[in-house]
């Protein structure tokens, strides 16, 4: 289910370990409770300290959790899950915490919707235009999710959005298997890269994803071996600059 071989070289620049040494917790869609005004859940921190890991805290329109993870020394890719005015969500990964903080302060914090604070007052096309000029990496989460998060049904501009991102999240642990399979089919059709993650808030959800991830890693040791040998990180803005 997890497409390790479709993970971008953008992420491999963060690896400080070899895949065959021990299990590695990889989670590129992880949430904290920072967005609700609380601190990082201690159980999440203790869980991550128990094994090598590479994570991306992607709180909804909030970076306090991501910043806290970086500041306490977690192997965290500075990230955010943008929730736009039109309901579209976008995972945005940056090369540095400074880049994430600058983007958030200028383009997210001041644009939060007056009444719907979980969203901004800007649409997805607005952010895609901005992010095209930044050194970052973009992935569409839960493209075939449940209810309003099923972008295939609810977003008429879906095709144009897909053509402007780097990846599609092809495994989200909170979704049924058939939803993830459908996301993989879409990724292959558009020849994009893949991300994957737990979409978790609490330790119980992390443990469930951890068990599944361990099974998948054992099945894909050879793919992981080639993945960890990739030396460079290339994001959407970098590729376009070279065109």
From TrEMBL:
<dbReference type="InterPro" id="IPR016195">
    <property type="entry name" value="Pol/histidinol_Pase-like"/>
</dbReference>
<protein>
    <submittedName>
        <fullName>PHP domain-containing protein</fullName>
    </submittedName>
</protein>
